Amino acid sequence: MNPYDDPAAAAAAARKQVAPNQPPVTNQPPVTNQPPVTSGLALASMISAVLSPLFLCLCGLSIVPSVIAVVTGHMGLKRINASSGKIAGQGLAITGLAVGYPMLLFSILMLLSVGNAFLEGFNEAKQERDRGNGILVEASTSQQRLRDAELKVMSASGGDGATGNTPEAKQLALGFSQQFQVLREALFTDERKPIVSLSQGKFIVHCELHSDRCAFVVHVPSYRKFDDEGKESLAIIAWSLASEKAAEVLKPGDSLAVGLRGTLLYGDVMTGQVPEGDGESNYVLGERESLFEYFPVSIVESDSPILPTEAENVVPRAEMEPPPSVSPDIPSMEPSFRPPTTRKPQRQIPPPPSIQPPRFQPTNPPPPVESTSMSVEGITVEKAFEFSNLGWTVKSLAFSLDGRWLAGGKLDRSVLIFDLQSGEQVGEAKKVSDGQVECVAFSPDGKTLFCSTSNGETQVHAVDASGLIGESSPLHSYTRGANLILPSPAARFVLSAGDNGTIVWQAYGGSASDERTLKALDRKVLAVHLPPTGVGAMATDGRSLVKFDLRLAELTNTIPLDRGGTQAASFSPNGMLVAISSGREITVYDTQTGKPQASLAKDLRETQWAVKFHPNGRWLLSGGRGKAYLWDIETREHLATIDLGNVLYINALAFSQDGRMIAAIPSAAGQTLSVFRLGGSAF
Q1: What does the UniProt keyword field contain (predicted)?
Q2: What domains can you pick out in the chain, each with its CATH number?
């Protein structure tokens, strides 16, 4: 073919001759080298390994992500090695294995430890029953019975969040669980639900109920997330609820315990007694072992799961409690704590009229000695008097202006007066009210004693020259409790304050004046300052400071103090400072500006339940656990520690007017009232 006649046909013929077997040309793009893809198994291994410590911290279940990390890591490596470079991610798989194996080993060890407890508990439960009708025929140890209860609260298997050793006990546990849940949600609004929880975010409660004792073992969801102050608040709530529930079925004075725990460990373990009526509910902190006696070894012969009787207890009651040396109606020494509660008691059980406290003689005080905990020189502390076996809790103390008399208001609705010249109790007024005596105070001349009570009554009593207390005359009556009463230092009127923030002042002793009322605050008034001259007074609930006019009964100024939960407050004698105890810190504020001037007690790491200014206006006394602390506000120094010889909370403190005497008593039944004398070159 001539190429000049048909060039295209000639070119095609030439190509066929050169490569006759070449496949026809298509429009597909040329093949290029593809990069290797990352193995999904290797990536899953690394992510699971990283999540394993996180799961351990959140819910204690790290074995699941650890196993996933190890399995997917090995599978990923196997596929990567067989892919001839087409699959990448070898480093991710190795990382997952490197973290997964140690976490897996740690998880196994932890599960073995917990599983051993589970196994012993389940074996114990199986051994307790040898018939199909659920009759207990053989006693187990107290430790094993407690462990069985702990197993029950570690899961939500109970459905409603409650278990008990009897049907009645389960009902108590159910009520406890539901009320605890509501209060926790109300008080801790920022609590977040955990990703994984053994109890699905519920309070799982086991109640162990016997004829003379009751214990609540409580699983608190996300317990480890609460700080120290939060855990302390939970303990207060739990004890208050437990006291209320136990009072429905037990007698006052019966034993009571509450144990709060997280997934694995206990937090606060509290023991005490069922309170009397609307009385205080006190507890002392202990360890897990203190719960053993609440899970007694028992044998039940009946065919029905009735409440065990005292005869069933293998551990005799006499071995658990010392024989009473006084009337059994008088409470024994109990822990010092009064959780705040506004509940109405299920029943009113007044103290038996047969209680007749003896004349209390002071023990021989030790010789004056210098405090070993002084941080500055010039102060000595010596014990002047001790008054022991005072029966029911003393809630408040007050010196007369001349320092001769010391008055104490008590939980059993009585008032005591002690003569500090003779060292004897000289006066007692019984059943001054239907409520416990919250506060006492002397008039400036020492001839009148004022009282405020938990049922809202305020009263005035005459005190004769020998310290005997006369009949009461009523003052203002509040709809709720009256927690504070304070006479004017200059005029014949007395001011009282209620739990709802209402303040009332009125004349006494024949002085003609109208009663004045002011709704000053929204919460319980903790402290009031009355001026020696003028009409400007102040009050605080710990969160704000209000100033008001006594003549007009009007608020003149409100200063926020930016404090959370508070325990106590005290004004300096000149009214220039106010001290607020909040949690484990005491903050002193300038009452003119509301600005903090000093911070005290943080290093002690314990709640200060009471604060009182010294008459010199520079020192401050606080009450902690078993000890009172004296502080210098100007230098922020800790001047002295006054040891009361126990670990119970101190709510009742008082200074004499000359500042040389301190009275203090732990807030519990059967405690010793101690009076200390301050001396040294500082005076």
Answers
A1: Membrane, Transmembrane, Transmembrane helix
A2: 37-127 (no CATH), 134-301 (no CATH), 361-390+604-683 (no CATH), 393-560 (2.130.10.10)
